[in-house]
Design a protein that fits this description.
With 91 residues, the chain is an all-alpha fold. The chain contains three helices and no strands.
Amino acid sequence: MREPTRDDIDALVGPATPHFAYQLRARVRELVSALSAGHPVRAYADEKLQLLDALGHASSKAHDGGRAHRDRPGWGELPSSAPADEPLPRR
């Protein structure tokens, strides 16, 4: 296999979404695992790993947001969205 390039890193990271940030982070880490710590592509990948970590972490911090109001349309149809301390009644 050829040595990875910055373009290879960008191809993986560029279309990243919060939902897939950690999967892409693992792929980037694996891609550069054979490179030395001082390699410029490894350093570039490390920057992108931090970006992916921030992207995934920011989207998974539900406690930072407010609770959805129960009068929201469709709430009664989504029992999995009720908080643990206020579960919806069993059907």
